[in-house]
Each structure stands twice: as C-alpha cells, then as structure tokens.
Specification:
Chain lengths: 181, 172
Amino acid sequence: MIFDNPYVLAHGLLVGLAFGFLLQRGKVSRFNTIVGQFLFTDFTVLKIMFTAIIVGAIGVYGLLHHQMITQLPLIPSSMIGSAIGGIIFGCGMALLGYCPGTAIAAIAQGAKDATYGVLGMFVGTALFEFVYTHIYETTHADPTKETMATALNVSPWLVIAVLAVAALALFLVIEKFEKKQ
Amino acid sequence: MNNTPRFWNPYAVGAGIGVLSTISIFTIGKTLGTSSAFVRVIGFLESLFWPDYVANSLYFQKNFLGKPIIDWQIALVIGLFFGSALAAYWYKTCQIEAVPSIWQKNFGSSVARRSISAFVGGIIILFGARMAGGCTSGKAISSGLQLGISAWIFIMTLFAAGIVTARILYRK
C-alpha cells in the first residue's frame, strides 16, 4: 500500500499548509530565532510553544469533556527514551538552528543551510533505526500514556490551570525583560 | 528599516497552532508532527534496496511496515513546505541565505563549514527525535498539550541541552 486514502491526504495537506503558514509568520523558521531562544536574546519560541500548548490543552480536554472525542490521541512513549532523546535533540537543534518542522519551512523561504539539515535528518533516522534493536530494551522498555493529571490523580483542568498561570507569569517576566533591553 | 513588525504576534501564532491541533484531533484524530515522516521515506528507500533487512527490522516492523508510505503526515509535511513558501512570498519575508548572521559572527562566512555543520546537526536532531518518539511539534507541543509526562521531560531536557550547547557554540 503506497497511498493513504485521498481524504486523509487532502486533510494532511491542508493542516500542513496552515501549520507552515503559521510557523513562517511566527518567525520560527529562522536560525536566529531558534538559537536566539537558547541564548535568551529572542523569546519567540517559548511564547509560541507555551501558548500553543495551553490553547491546545484547553481544546483537546474540552473535546474530551464534551465527548466529542472518545480518547486522547496520546502516543505511548518511554520516559528514559524521552529524556535521552531530549538531550540529543537539544544539542542538534542548537547546532542546526531549526527543528524538523521549521527546517522544512526554512527551506521554503530560501534558507540553504536548512536543506543540508534536512538531508542530515534522513541519515539520522536511518542511524537510529540501525541502533534501535540494540538499545530498545534499556531505552524503550517502559512506554507510558501517563499524563500529569493521571500521575497526580487530579483533574486535568487543575493541571491546565496551573500551567496557564505559570505560562502567564513567565510571559509577563519575558515582556518586562524585553522592554528593558 | 522602520520598526513595523514584519511578523505576526507570537502569542497569536501560538494560539493558532493550538487551535489547529484541536481541529486536527477533532476532525481526524491525529496530532501535528513531522519527524515520523522521515521514517516513512527512509523505510521506503531502504525497502527498495534491502527488502529483507527492512522486513526483519524491529523498528520498521513497529513504525513502518503495514502502513501506507504516503500517509497523513507526509501530506502535512508537503503542505507545511508550501504554506511557508506562500507566507514568505506573500508577506515578502523570504530569506535567501546560506549562512545565518549569528553563525557568521562566530564561525565566519564559509558556506561549506555552515552546510556541513547543518548536515551534522540534522543527523543529531532526528536521531534524538526518533529516540524520544517525536520532535518539537509531534512531541513537545502535541503530547505536551495532552499533558503527557514524557513530553514534558522532553521539553525540559531539550531546552537544557539546547541552552548549554548554544552557549558553548555561539559566544559572540
């Protein structure tokens, strides 16, 4: 089977169009924006990411609450794999200056270095597949769908409220800091 | 240049991505992501040359075989490319360059040096993404908004490693 059904593909294409448009308009398809975040000279990445998470959390748990979806589309994932993966990913992101999605968006707006980055991504994928058999018993033995709400045994809305307040506080500090500069 | 913002407000863009995630989950039960599209392409390419190897690979058995090659996420990545191109063209914010300015300040204007580093960075970042089971969109945002614990571990380790690496690399 090569192609998924046309409805699914058209749907993906439309979602991708909107996503790419937003990433480019949000300035995160630029090396200086990504690296600037790690250097604390540009806070665009944090602002976009945490707003997306809070709004999306309200959206998805709202859908669940009103039984518009029957379950969360959460992918089971290993904690150890996530921690090691996060460290490796962060190093790569600082060197490359794009993440996988924004690298594609960067190529589209003319960044030639992003093209080499994406070529490297294919190699990285093949490399990981190659080592997976030898490491998965240690790194991917504990896939979990646990959320902060299920782990703490509290309502997801409480977690979302705490995250929203924390994000808001963070945004206020960032805005103040940016004004000073 | 005057000071009129050439880009959209980041909070508005973030809210837009949050709404887009919700719409996508509601209409098709799928979350935004890009890094597993690479598995589909690599799985397909390797299966052309080494079908037996791919058939016996544990990773491909779990993440590639038995599913369509051109799937929803591949379509999303293609759409993402054109969406960004459209925005760049429309708002005249193209950026035709091979060496970004922060990089140039630290490592000079050599295109070869930047291209090779980007290539290596690409290898590292996707190795990490596959290790974690997703990237900034597919894991940090998509699972993070579902409050998944592993996603929040990923977000924290990603930023910690990114901050340290960037401080070492870009001192100027």
